[in-house]
Design a protein that fits this description.
By secondary structure, the chain is α+β, with helices and mostly antiparallel strands. The protein contains four helices and 17 strands. A hairpin with a 4-residue loop joins strand 16 and strand 17. Helix 3 packs antiparallel against helix 4. The protein starts with 6 loop residues before the first strand and ends in a 13-residue tail after the last strand. The structure holds 2-amino-4-trifluoromethylsulfanyl-butyric acid and cobalt (II) ion (CO) (2 copies).
């Protein structure tokens, strides 16, 4: 990938220029708009491949490109992870049933920039235990974003997320992390959702990355199924995830993937 503008830190993290924020906002907004537009489709009886087909057509209609179709052999425009699926669920013919919770994760390439976001949905009625899991996972992402500012470290982000999740007696998945992005999909650093305050690279203005904590009601361990993609909780407990793409500004984090309709939060 041609990604030569700006400079790299000694940790290999790209420092982008002011003008690059506009490109990330455009890409991030499109990904978030798509996640808004599928809300009416999330209902019992709907298959996850129907939802993915809609996402594929919306990416095309916008004149953008799916970042996931063809990525390491993946063939879909979204990952749809239902109930105990932690991430990388493959859309298929199985239909949603009442009370299922699901994460839909979409990454688009728009004008050369990557917009990567995911959020939780429910089919039908939301079970009480799942509601708590979704709320804690959403709030954990927001605690991570609050810690994302110049002078803080990536360890501060992970620590803020882990501390909050564990105070709520849930667990943070260790096997998957957030990532730098920009004109590439996955770049340094690995953004861990756990860790010690004050450790890891120092955040600087111009860094672009995702924060995407996965939280389990039970144990944190995961395993990948025989399809080589689907990651599930080993103890079959429910799992939730929210993801934003952000850019570090002079005094905080600019969220590129805010919901245009204000429907990112689980209580929409
Ligand atoms: N969007 C995912 C992420 O947050 C990556 C999905 S890769 C795929 O990094 F191939 F599984 F789609
Ligand atoms: Co991501
Ligand atoms: Co994603």
């Amino acid at each position: 990938m041609d990604d030569t503008r700006g400079r790299l830190t000694r940790d290999g993290i790209r420092i982008h220029e002011d003008a690059d924020f506009a490109g990330m906002h455009k890409a991030g907004r499109l990904a978030a708009q798509i996640l808004d537009d599928i809300i009416p489709m999330i209902e019992p009886g709907r298959s996850t491949e129907e939802i993915d087909a809609k996402i594929t057509s919306m990416v095309e209609a916008a004149g953008a490109v799916s970042a996931t179709i063809g990525y390491k052999g993946y063939q879909h425009a979204s990952c749809i992870s239902v109930n105990h699926v932690v991430c990388h669920g493959i859309p298929g013919p199985k239909v949603l049933k009442d009370g299922d919770i699901l994460n839909v994760d979409v990454t688009v390439i728009e004008g050369g920039w990557y917009g990567d976001t995911s959020r939780m949905y429910v089919a039908g009625n939301l079970p009480r235990k799942a509601e708590r899991l979704i709320q804690v996972t959403h709030d954990a992402l927001m605690k991570g974003i609050e810690a994302a500012k110049p002078g803080n470290t990536f360890g501060d982000i992970g620590n803020a997320i882990q501390t909050y999740v564990e105070a709520n007696r849930m667990s943070v998945v260790r096997d998957f992390c957030g990532h730098g992005l920009g004109r590439v999909f996955h770049a340094p650093p690995n953004v861990l959702h756990y860790g010690r305050a004050g450790t890891g690279p120092v955040l600087e203005e111009g860094m672009f990355f995702t924060i995407e904590p996965m939280v389990n009601l039970g144990r944190p361990e995961t395993k990948v199924l025989a399809d080589d993609w689907t990651a599930v909780t080993r103890d079959k407990s429910l799992s939730a995830q929210f993801e934003h793409s952000v850019g570090i500004t002079a005094d905080g984090a600019d969220i590129f993937t805010l919901s245009p309709a204000g429907k990112f939060h689980p209580t929409y």
